[in-house]
Amino acid sequence: MTTDDAAGADSGTDAGANAENAEDESPTERTKEELRKTKERIGEGADKAVKGFDDNVVDLLAWLLDTETRARIYVYLREHPESTSDEVADGTGLYPSTVREALAELHDEGTVSRGKREADGAGNNPYEYEAIAPSELVRGVVGDVQAELNAVFNLDRRLGGEDADGDDEPVQISVAGDDETASDDETASDDETASDDETASDEERGH
């Protein structure tokens, strides 16, 4: 028998063995293996989707918060409230000094709040930070965006040397919930006024 014949025989033997092993596998085992592979594929797809979502959110927040660094810190604090600067640095992979500087700026702007972490015993308790809700963040920039868009709308007037006091303001941006809040405030005010009127009327009748 030649070497090629021997190799062909070995290959045939391996193929036969694989076929026998496949036949030995029960339908249940094959189903489990297929499920395992499917879960792995789904998991990989989900990871890619989450990463893509996170990147898109960070890009948008970077526009709102001026830099990607501040955006990543904001997202981390929304996911992990009451974190210290060191924890934020570890979680985001940013330099600790960069995180401390950004947190100080965000705190001054009111985008994050901070308080001393409670700990047993004496020691230097670090600040822990928490980011404001996204709805508050959006409300904080709506006015600026509205003013900029109205300035663009009135560009021709400005180029013509006209005063900004006469600008039109066709762009009016509202955030869902603001009208409801205002309505609730008005209702509460009306209720208080009605209550005061009834009290005054009762006092007059008493006299």
UniProtKB/TrEMBL annotation:
Basic and acidic residues compositional bias, start-end: 27-43
Region span, Disordered: 1-43, 158-207
Regions that span the bilayer: none
Domain of life of the source: Archaea
Acidic residues bias (residue ranges): 177-201
Biased composition (Low complexity): 1-20
Boundaries of every Transcription regulator TrmB N-terminal domain copy: 68-134
Gene3D superfamilies named in the record: Winged helix-like DNA-binding domain superfamily/Winged helix DNA-binding domain
Entries under Pfam families matching the protein: TrmB (PF01978)
InterPro entries for the chain: ArsR-like_HTH, Tscrpt_reg_TrmB_N, WH-like_DNA-bd_sf, WH_DNA-bd_sf
Descriptive protein name: Helix-turn-helix domain-containing protein
Species of origin: Halorubrum tibetense
Lineage, opening ranks: Archaea, Methanobacteriati, Methanobacteriota, Stenosarchaea group, Halobacteria
